[in-house]
């Protein structure tokens, strides 16, 4: 069977990795990398305190968080040791004391189906500064000792592709175009494939619109600032209210972000002023941190839908054409599991999730030609 994957972000890279484990398949990946959300993602894995009412989203996010250890083991089996996944103690900031109590109760309740969640407790301001001397915050916080993690999305994709190359992945660093969608096959860049996975994120419409599909996927610009520090390797992952997240990564890199800009279309220009709220929050929490000393501002384009829900699976009436999109800012939490599930859907193997809750039919419609 010949399979094409269009898009080398987190979904496409994971799907290609699992598809290439079976030598019966010839797998080709198309990806130009331009504007890819994964490369500009902070990578926070901690969905258990979310109060989103979308239960299907939470099931996917929780399962996605628990899938990471398995993904790391599967990479290890191929001889690829990835350092992209790092477990981190995590602090959550909420100004209202009642909200702190409510979230602790919520996460404690969720422990029954989330064994990753470690000990949850409150930390007073004195306890906080005893752990992190540079820190200034005059309220109690929520601390989770284990279970949460940070992900270097770009590094993880590189590790996945390296493992896939060793199993025969064919790679084209180009923006792919679908030439034809027929009842039996799909032609991409002049080559016919039996199955095709479209994991192009916010660019899904560019691939399907020329073939008379209406696609409910929209671009959201995200920017985050990257710093090189001397001490952040020992910091917890910190999640204040609002857009600000303070994410320590390897090699004393620290990420601040990320913005959620729905009015910038596919613009990839760096605009530091959009980070002003994030910088302001950081200055209050770390008064002596030099905010202007960032080494880079990363820019990426997320995909979101009208109801901010992700979707994946076969395109209605085209069982050989598969899609995934709409992951939004939780893409690195849900993306690996979605990529794994799509690889199993394509090859008709056993699934761990009921994809009917994330059916593309709610977001993709074929228009009469």
UniProtKB/TrEMBL annotation:
<comment type="similarity">
    <text>Belongs to the DadA oxidoreductase family.</text>
</comment>
<dbReference type="Pfam" id="PF01266">
    <property type="entry name" value="DAO"/>
</dbReference>
<keyword id="KW-0285">Flavoprotein</keyword>
<dbReference type="GO" id="GO:0016491">
    <property type="term" value="F:oxidoreductase activity"/>
</dbReference>
<dbReference type="InterPro" id="IPR006076">
    <property type="entry name" value="FAD-dep_OxRdtase"/>
</dbReference>
<dbReference type="GO" id="GO:0005737">
    <property type="term" value="C:cytoplasm"/>
</dbReference>
<feature type="domain" description="FAD dependent oxidoreductase">
    <location>
        <begin position="2"/>
        <end position="345"/>
    </location>
</feature>
<dbReference type="InterPro" id="IPR036188">
    <property type="entry name" value="FAD/NAD-bd_sf"/>
</dbReference>
<protein>
    <submittedName>
        <fullName>FAD dependent oxidoreductase</fullName>
    </submittedName>
</protein>
<keyword id="KW-0560">Oxidoreductase</keyword>
């Amino acid at each position: 069977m010949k399979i094409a994957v269009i898009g080398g972000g987190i979904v496409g890279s994971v799907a290609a990795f699992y598809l290439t484990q079976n030598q019966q398949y010839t797998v080709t990946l198309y990806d130009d990398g331009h504007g890819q959300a994964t490369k500009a993602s902070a990578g926070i894995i901690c969905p258990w305190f979310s109060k989103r009412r979308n239960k299907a989203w939470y099931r996917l996010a929780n399962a996605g968080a628990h899938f990471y250890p398995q993904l790391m083991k599967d990479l290890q089996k191929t001889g690829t040791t990835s350092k992209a996944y790092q477990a981190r103690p995590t602090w959550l900031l909420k100004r209202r004391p009642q909200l702190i109590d409510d979230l602790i109760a919520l996460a404690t309740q969720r422990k029954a189906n989330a064994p990753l969640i470690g000990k949850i407790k409150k930390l007073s301001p004195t306890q906080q500064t005893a752990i992190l001397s540079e820190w200034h915050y005059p309220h109690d916080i929520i601390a989770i000792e284990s279970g949460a993690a940070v992900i270097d999305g770009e590094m993880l994709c590189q590790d996945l592709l390296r493992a896939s190359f060793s199993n025969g992945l064919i790679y084209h660093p180009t923006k792919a175009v679908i030439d034809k969608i027929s009842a039996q096959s799909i032609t991409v860049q002049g080559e016919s494939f039996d199955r095709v996975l479209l994991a192009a994120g916010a660019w899904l419409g560019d691939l399907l619109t020329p073939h008379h599909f209406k696609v409910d996927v929209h671009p959201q610009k995200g920017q985050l600032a990257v710093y090189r520090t001397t001490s952040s390797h020992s910091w917890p992952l910190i999640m204040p209210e609002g857009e600000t997240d303070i994410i320590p990564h390897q090699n004393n890199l620290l990420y601040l972000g990320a913005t959620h800009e729905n009015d910038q279309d596919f613009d990839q220009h760096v605009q530091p002023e959009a980070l002003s709220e994030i910088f302001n929050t950081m200055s209050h929490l770390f008064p002596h941190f030099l905010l202007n000393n960032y080494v880079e501002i990363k820019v990426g384009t997320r995909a979101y839908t009208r109801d901010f829900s992700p979707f994946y699976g076969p395109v209605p009436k085209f069982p050989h054409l598969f899609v995934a999109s709409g992951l939004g800012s939780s893409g690195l939490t849900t993306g690996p599991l979605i990529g794994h599930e799509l690889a199993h859907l394509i090859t008709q193997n056993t699934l761990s999730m009921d994809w009917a809750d994330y059916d593309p039919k709610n977001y993709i419609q074929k228009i009469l030609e």
